[in-house]
Every structure is written in C-alpha cells, then in structure tokens.
C-alpha cells in the first residue's frame, strides 16, 4: 500500500489548499497519510533564504501572478481564501507546536489543522495568539488549555525542531513537502513532491507503486 508523509506549516496558503485537495486522492487510492508538522521558517532560514527577497515587492509581476493564481486555485478547490490577512505573515511557532503536540493522534491533529487553516485563511484570525489557538482547539473538540500547556513542553519543542530538520535532511525547502513510499521500499527510494500543483504527480506515484 502507498504511504504519503505530508509535512506542513499552517502559515502557507498553498499548504492550506493541498491539505484540502489531497483528501480525495487518499480516498481514491486507499493510501495511508501521515500528517507531520514542521516550522517552515526554519527551513527557509537554512536552505531557502531567497523566499524572503521575493516577498519584498508585492507589486512585482511575479507576486501579482501569485495572488491571481492563488485566488483561482482557491475557487477551483472550493476553499474560501481571504489572504493576505492583517496578521500576515505569521511566525506560526506557537501554532506548529500545538500541531506537534497532537502528531501522535493523527485524527486530532487533522481536526485542529483543518480548523486552524479555516481560522487563518478564511476568518483572518491570528494564529500567533495563544488564546486564539486555544479557542480553535476548543472549537475542534479538543481541550485548548491542555493543548497549550503540552505545546510549551520541552519534548514538543524538540519534536518540532526534529521534524523541521528532517525536512531539510530529506531535501525539502518549503511547505507542503510530501513523500510517497510503498511497503518494502527503503527510505532512499521515497519520491518527494512540493506544492499543491504537484498533487496529480503524488497520485501518479501512489498508483505506480500499486501496479
């Protein structure tokens, strides 16, 4: 059976779309998916510093196309996207620690991440505010206060650092980064994909391993 490891950071609009758009692929293929939170800023600082330069001129032809394409993809995906918000760009450290605290409970992590994406990209709520994160957790059926306490632990902070380093070590440079593997594959044969627009290739890689 195919497996997809989906590395994500809540601050990325393209990750929000991919998080939504990969769901029917997983359903069609029967693949397993592992949601893995990491801190995309840490990856940018290590291997992709040029991304910051690209954000400096929001009126450049490239950035105008970026926002146009994002709007069209959001409409195609059926995902309400009110971006950028007054809180952009978020640092997302607190939010990703909350996600990391939930990573051993994939169902809870998916609920919290889904609610957080909607909170930031649809409702323009501030994911850098711990009390907002607690409220989002409560709305997702979790214990927000307990989640904040767990997210502040040394173990969770270390886990987030480890996940971030893992993305770097595997050749990733942004969010979302996805790896497709199959039963019996060694780690070196995993196929890496980056971005919402590569989801058709993710599905192809899953199906190729099943043939």
Q: What does this entry look like structurally?
A:
This protein has a single domain, classed as Glutaredoxin (3-Layer(aba) Sandwich). It is 56% helix and 11% strand. The chain has helices at 13-29, 40-47, 50-54, 61-77, 93-101, 106-121, 130-139, 144-151, 154-169, 199-210, and strands spanning 2-8, 32-37, 177-182, 191-194. The chain has a 4-stranded mixed beta sheet, sandwiched between helices. Helix 1 packs across helix 6, helix 2 crosses helix 9 (154-169) and helix 6 crosses helix 7 (130-139). The longest helix is centred in the first third of the chain and has 17 residues, at 13-29. The protein is globular. The model has no long low-confidence stretch (mean pLDDT 93).
Main attributes?
alpha+beta; single chain; four-stranded mixed beta sheet; 211 residues; Glutaredoxin
């Amino acid at each position: 059976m195919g497996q997809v490891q989906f590395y994500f950071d809540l601050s990325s609009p393209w990750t929000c779309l991919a998080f939504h758009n990969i769901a029917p692929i997983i359903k069609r293929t029967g693949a397993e998916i592992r949601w893995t939170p990491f801190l995309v800023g840490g990856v940018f600082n290590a291997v992709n510093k040029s991304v910051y330069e690209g954000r400096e001129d929001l009126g450049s032809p490239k950035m105008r196309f970026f926002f146009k394409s994002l709007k069209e993809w959001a409409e195609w995906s059926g995902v309400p996207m009110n971006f950028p918000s007054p809180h952009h760009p978020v640092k997302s450290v607190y939010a990703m620690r909350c996600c990391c605290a939930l990573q051993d409970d994939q169902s809870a992590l998916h609920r919290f991440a889904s609610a957080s994406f909607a909170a930031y990209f649809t409702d323009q709520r501030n994911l850098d505010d711990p009390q907002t994160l607690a409220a989002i957790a409560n709305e997702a059926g979790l214990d927000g206060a307990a989640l904040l306490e767990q997210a502040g632990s040394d173990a969770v902070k270390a886990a987030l650092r480890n996940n971030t380093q893992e993305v770097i070590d595997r050749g990733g440079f942004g969010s979302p980064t996805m790896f497709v593997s199959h039963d019996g594959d060694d780690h070196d044969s995993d196929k890496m994909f980056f971005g919402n627009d590569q989801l058709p290739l993710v599905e192809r890689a899953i199906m190729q391993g099943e043939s």
